[in-house]
Design goal:
The chain contains 9 helices and no strands. By secondary structure, it is an all-alpha fold. The protein is globular, with a radius of gyration of 14 Å.
Length: 140
């Protein structure tokens, strides 16, 4: 399991989070728009990709209307992406290599990129399984 602090760091809420319960509380209260900006910037290869990913996490109309905290649903999407990215960074031990891996098609994911697979909870779990196999040197 990836440390909650690593996920919180990607979301920019590391001062609030020490445990999984703290992370759950932050997501339940709703993350800030800045958290979404941080996670998509960390994953996307360029500005255009970051904007497209942000629009997947938070529809642009909702993005423009939101002044305070994001909904729990949107916050969960952002946390899921941050969790998968934290796992990739842990596995590759390098943020740039993790970013490249997240954006490259993978045969274990049916030719989809880990980023595309991680748009659902089950897909994110599958990506985490692939990362575990890579980390422990199992064939993938």
């Amino acid at each position: 399991m990836i440390a909650p602090g690593a996920i919180a760091d990607i979301l920019g809420i590391q001062d609030e989070v020490r445990t999984v319960a703290d992370l759950d509380g932050a997501v339940s209260r709703g993350l800030s728009k800045q958290s979404v900006v941080r996670v998509v910037s960390r994953i996307a290869l360029n500005e255009k990709g970051a904007r497209a990913l942000r629009d997947q996490v938070v529809p642009s109309a909702t993005w423009k209307r939101t002044k305070g905290r994001l909904s729990v649903h949107v916050s969960e999407r952002a946390e899921r992406l941050a969790r998968v990215m934290a796992a990739a960074e842990y596995t590759w031990d390098d943020a740039d290599r993790a970013r490249i891996w997240m954006n490259a098609p993978h045969s274990e994911l049916g030719g989809r990129t880990p980023l595309a697979a991680a748009t659902t909870e089950l897909g994110a779990r599958t990506v985490e399984t692939v990362l575990d196999k890579l980390f422990y040197g199992l064939p993938v």
